Amino acid sequence: MALRTLITRKALRPVPIGFRGLQTFSLPDLAYGYGDLEPAISGEIMQIHHQKHHQAYITNYNKSLEQLDAAISKGDASAVVKLQAAIKFNGGGHVNHSIFWKNLAPISEGGGEPPKSTLAMAIDNNFGSLEALIQKMNAEGAALQGSGWVWLGLDKEFKRLVIATTANQDPLVTVGPNLVPLLGIDVWEHAYYLQYKNVRPDYLKNIWKVINWKYASEVFEKENP
Amino acid sequence: MAASAAATIATPLQCGLLSSQGFSGSTRILQLKKNEKRSVRKACRGLITAKIDLSPPPYSLDALEPHMSRETFEYHWGKHHRAYVDNLNKQIVGTELDLKPLEEIIVATYNKGDLLPPFNNAAQVWNHDFFWGSMKPGGGGEPSGELLRLIKRDFGSFEVFVNEFKAAAATQFGSGWAWLVYKANRLDVGNAVNPRPTDEDKKLAIVKSPNAVNPLVWDYSPLLTVDVWEHAYYLDFQNRRPDYVSTFMEKLVSWDAVSARLEAAMARAAEREKEEEMKKTESEDNLTNSEAVEMYLDPDSEDSEAT
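Structure tokens for the assembled complex are given below, as produced in the milestone run.
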């Protein structure tokens, strides 16, 4: 499954815990240096975002998985249920950020270059133009209260592109099980505050200069062979 | 500045709406809470609108250095809090929410969880005012008096309370707040009346809330809060929320403010209790004494029935 591949790419050898051989996760590397997305996103933000925030989600996700494993083995139903919030939050954080790093690329590597071919056509069909898509995503991202993400997704069932927002670290699949994330933009304050402070709209305007449309196209084409 | 903004936003249609409610001239008919800052102004053709004001923290913007930087205040108060105030005013001017006390706006727009658009701004205005007041220069240390007694009673010890409060602040996923509150709901059941109320029913509790939600919507009395939206600590602590909350507890909390709020909350709870008692006895009296009316009889008066 595409999602599982994403999670385990670059992961260390699974560390068996107990009889079940519980697989834990580790921080995926970025395909570029922390400073390579400047001036759109500062190196300081990229380093803290990757090494502190994403790492913390992974650490806590692994912890919750171990606790879940123990609860399942003991047959402790209420403990299993109680862990769901932490799993959704930390696991979601790991899933979302793993996608996010691939959604970004230095300008020298094609960051900001508009999509071509089938994805470009789909964007025009669904939104009228790339500019219209960007405007809509920026509006939804700016209006999001609190913490969350704004997504460009593919609805596999209805074969159309959708824009959606999710709260906190909820992955796109929580909006609809047939939604595949093509692009996600993190609008948690940690994603932009050191550089843009309270002006989230400026962050949203500038991030498009380093958006990696090549990756989004790859995912899109895989679902639409 | 903001007054003229309010004036230009109210449209003739909204003017019509409000004047049909019968407000006249410059009569001030607001019931404002003590210290609530509102500016009552005329906006368009005699329409009265009560703009919410942005109050500064009760200390200068650099007074909490080095624990909370001036730069943080410049953005947190100067941009975020100010934006909530400005945006709320735009949303309520000319509507029936205008002229209502802020706490009423909050409860009304909470709408039992189905949030109406002004809720986020209204609650965040209140939350930030309350947060600034929860801190003071040279804060921290330990509470005393009645507050400390209740903390020990309801948590076991001050240390246990601090640990629970820090844990709540650390585990509020995403944006939000952690609170110390005073609950005086008697029995925690909507329609039931506690037949044997004791002081034990009135207790301190720690709660956490997401985004703009605050304990007013649950009918609790907030006593203390810490803002755990990332904008509250990112410039000073980056991702290190636990360090921020520890610093808040050790160096910034104004226990004086918390004690004063507790006193007010307990007085309110006592008053409510009295009102409920009176209502109860009144309705009992009405059932048994519907005919009896006490009259002061003056024997010398012509009206007296005494002979």
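Residues 70-263 of chain B form a domain with the minor pseudopilin epsh fold fold (CATH 3.55.40.20). Chain B touches chain A through 19 residues (CB under 8 Å). Further analysis is deferred to the final report.
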